[in-house]
Task: structure prediction
Amino acid sequence: MLNVLVTGGAGYIGSHCCKELYLQGYNPITVDNLVYGHRENVKWGSFYEADVGNPDQLQDCFAKYKIDAVMHFAAYAYVGESMEAPLTYYTNNVRNTINLFNVLLEHRVNYVVFSSSCATYGNPVSIPIDEEHRLSPINPYGKTKRMIEEILEDLDIACGVKFVSLRYFNASGADPDGEIGEKHDPETHLIPLVLDVAAGKQKAIKVFGTDYRTPDGTCIRDYIHVTDLARAHILALEYLLNGGKSTAFNLGQGRGYSVLEIIDKVEEITAKKIEIAHTNRRPGDPPVLVASNQKAIRQLGWKPEFSSLADIIRTAWRWHQKI
Ligand code: UDP
Result:
């Protein structure tokens, strides 16, 4: 059984990947400092509490488990915070990742699946965005993701490390079995915030801008179910194990929904009236982000199965009622 080190395995996407790894016969080993991760999310495989920025802890972990591959999720992921505290992001997301890569090289681990983001593209010049689109991130968070991709490109040339960078669009939904889901503190994402209103925890959802050049004036995003994301990670790992070349794949469902469409769907699924508060645009939000997912479909044999808007919101709502 292959041992896969999962940094950030106690987080939202990392924990769904651990479940999928386990179900598909791999042994996930979660490394998480529990700053944003939750201990109760680690239900599959082993847990090693450590900070990716701590070389001694990582050395100990790599010595304890014979690691065959790494899935690297551990990172800070709030765009707004990254604008206000860029060094925190460069330290945590870049410096600590370099630390991880040093240990990985020492232990001759050759396979990395990296949790990247559509934030690496910046403001799109064409929609849908394919992997050839220029990479021009507009905030420190997106820049840290691109920097790691570049470091991996160099490590491939210098040391033969094979990697896949997975550029997520809007991760959403929850485990269809209801075992894990999204729990961010603070929560900034649209779907859980609309569900807070449905649950009576908040009075209204703020809609950030209604004057975009989109059909209903609100921003359009490509929402992809977290279980579909998780399955793509296993496919990416297997692609590498089978000798695939280092590359990047977009992970999105390939169609977009506006903020108002999300709110309508939440009203339909929860049967609750959602109060809306129109507010100003959030700085840095591009009007439309939609992925071309053809490369992952073609080269990984990936197929989003849980990403209808109804399934995303139904699974998220089921989870939301538990927390
Ligand atoms: N959004 C909104 N109100 C909120 C949170 C988000 O109108 O309280 C909008 C946001 O402007 C964006 C979309 O919902 O167009 C998705 O935002 P989210 O933060 O979930 O993900 P992002 O696309 O920023 O990664």
